[in-house]
Amino acid sequence: MYPLIAITFLATAVLSAEIDPSLTEWKLIERGVEIIDFPLNQYILQIKSYRSNIHHKGDPLYANNTIVDKSTSMLVHYMVNKRRIGQFVWNTIPYVAGTDVILFGCQAPYSRYQSNPCNGEFEQIWSWNFTPKGATLTCFDEVQYEVDFQYARNPSCRNLGSLEIDQLRFTNMAGFYYRAAPVENKVPSEAPEDLKVETFATTMTTLPPTTTYGGWAVERPTCDCWTRECGSCKNLECAVKYDLTASETGVTVTSVLNRKDYNTIRLYNSAGKAIGYFQWNLKSMILEGCIFCRAPRMPGIAKGDFNEWNFSMKDGVIRISVGGEVMYENKLGRGCKRHYQDVQYFAFEKMKCEGRYTVADGMEPGSLLDGTCHGKCQG
What we know:
By secondary structure, the protein is mainly beta. It folds into two domains: about 5-180, Sandwich (Jelly Rolls), CATH 2.60.120; about 210-365, Jelly Rolls. Helix content is about 5%, strand content about 35%. The strands form five sheets. Strands 2-12-1-4-8-9-10 form a seven-stranded mixed sheet, with no helix packed on it. It has a seven-stranded antiparallel sheet with strand order 21-20-19-18-25-16-27, with no helix packed on it. A six-stranded antiparallel sheet has the order 15-26-17-22-23-24, with no helix packed on it. Strand 9 (about 135-140) and strand 10 (about 140-150) form a beta hairpin. The chain starts with a strand and ends in a 14-residue tail after the last strand. About 40% of the residues are buried. Mean pLDDT is about 75; it is low at about 1-20, about 60-70 and about 185-215.
C-alpha cells in the first residue's frame, strides 16, 4: 500500500493569470500516471506523506538499473512543453545502506539523507525548492539534500535553473494529494507591469482602539488576505499586529466548522515576513512544517455551522479551544519552537465575510481590516 501523500505548493508572489487558483486547494491524484500544469520554477513543491513502516537494509537501484520501491519512494517527472526533461525520486524512510534521494541529470545525484528525516515523525512534510541557482529538499525545516546547478558538470543540470518547467507528471502516486500557494522573492524580471506585485511597507496604519465598548468585545469579519489589494497576504494592512507568542488569550474566531473547509491563520514575524500558517477543520490540523495530524473528536460541535473557537501558541504550545474547553494541545519540538518564536502579526486566508474574530486588548488591525473588509463585506 502506498503511503498517503499530499503536496503543498507555496504560491508565488506573482499574481499570474496563468496560475489556476484551484491549485491552492487540496486535490486527489486519482490515476497511477497523472499530469498537471505547474510552474516548478516559481513554486515550492511541498509533499505531505506518511512514513513507511518497511525497514530496508539494502540499496534501491536507480539510473540504468532503475528499481523504485513504490512502497517507500515518491517519483515526479518535470516537463517543458509536454516533453519530459527529468525526474526526482526520494524516500519516506532513510535506507540503512544506500541512497535516499535523486535529482536525475545532476552531479552526484545519489545522496543519503543528512539525518533521520522529519524527526522520525509518522506524518511528514517535504519541500522541493527549485531556484535559478539550485534545488533543495527539506523535511519540516531541516535540509536533507542540496544540489548547485551553477557548478554541475552535466550541462543538463546547469540549465535546470533556467528551464521554464510547466508540468509535473506523478507516477505510481494514486491516492496522494497536491495543492499550491505564493513563494516569496520569486518575481520574474519580465513580468507584465499590470501583474507586478506592489511592494508594501511593513509599518502599520492602525485603526483607533476599538477593543471594547461598554464592556462588550468588538468583533470584525475574518477578511480574506488572498486578494490583489492585499498582495496575496503580503500587505500587512490586511493583517493584525499582535504578539501571539506571548499572548495568553490568543485569537478567538467564530466560523463554520466542518470536515471540508479549512480555517487558515497566516503567521508573520516582527519584520512582517510570512513564516507559516495554521490550518484546521474537523478532519485535520496543520501547522506548516511542524504539525500534520488528525483533528480530535469534538463532542458538542455543531458540524457545518458556526462555532466559536480559539487558537493560541504561547511559549511554543499550540492549543485549540472550543467553548472554553481545550480540545487539542501540542508542545512544539525545539526546531519548530525556534521557527515560530517570533509571531507578531496574523491574517486570515481564504476565509469568508460571515466569519468573525474578537479584537482583543493589544491587537492593532491594519487599515484594510475594518468592519467591511474595506468594502468587500457588508457591515
